[in-house]
Amino acid sequence: MAPPILNPDGTINRGYGSDVEFDAQGEFIGIAAEVYRISRDRAFLTAIFEPVVGRPKFIEELCARTNALHGAESRLHGLLPPSISHEGYSIPSYSYWDDFFALSAWRNCEYLA
Q: What pTM, to 2 d.p., does this model score?
């Protein structure tokens, strides 16, 4: 899992929101893909392979949580479970913001593969 919030010194923030923000997974893969698109550095790609491969697995687990609550056929709630990833939420809510990053993660993984 990619940590959703980092402190100014680079350490992982373990406070409120650290377990209910789900945009970081897709954002991490997006950043990795952009670095590779610009640099074409194969050594970088090799170095980030394992961390990148783990993120879609976690996104699939998150999708399974939503499916368990609402059924696989119902997408009125989105792909991922409620979160506070969008800074305007004080109570976990369904966020298309998270869904966007999840979908872009799969597209970027395809590119990196």
A: 0.82
